[in-house]
């Protein structure tokens, strides 16, 4: 019971931290979006083992680092199609790792969460003018 309370407190504090670090205008850095996704996952799946939590933390840390490196590279050459391909590959890799460590029921929750996020992102991107890239 104490572990659940402790985990809940950490997640809540992390969520407040992530929210306080949001960029002006509601734009978050890629790293902050990854952390928000991870906290969202922890809030939706409450039966993760300690081992699963440790592995998920590692997956998201590596994912955040890969995104940061990709964004830095893409910002230099301004190739937005390359960025999209890299992001899709990173997402597929993360999804595969999550599939390996989550139970079937947990993965369904993860998949619903990430699918909804990706659909919202596509909607936002659909509102851009042709040729307009990320800010």
Q: Could you explain the architecture of this structure?
A:
By secondary structure, this protein is mostly helical. It has 5 helices and no strands. Helix 2 (about 30-45) runs antiparallel to helix 5 and helix 3 (about 50-75) packs antiparallel against helix 4 (about 80-100). The relative contact order is 0.09.
Provide a brief overview of the structure:
With 135 residues, the chain is an all-alpha fold. The protein has helices at residues 2-20, 30-44, 50-77, 80-101, 104-126. Helix 2 runs antiparallel to helix 3 and helix 2 (30-44) packs antiparallel against helix 5 (104-126).
Describe the biggest sheet? none
Rg estimate, integer Å? 16 Å
Tertiary shape: globular
Q: Determine the fraction of residues in helical runs and give it as a percent range.
A: over 70%
Number of helices: 5
What is the residue-mean pLDDT, rounded to a whole number? 80
What's the end-to-end separation, in Å?
Answer: 44 Å
Class derived from helix and strand content: mainly alpha
Query: What is the chain-wise order of helices and strands?
Result: HHHHH
Strand share of the residues?
Answer: under 5%
Low-pLDDT segments, ≥5 res:
none
Number of strands: 0
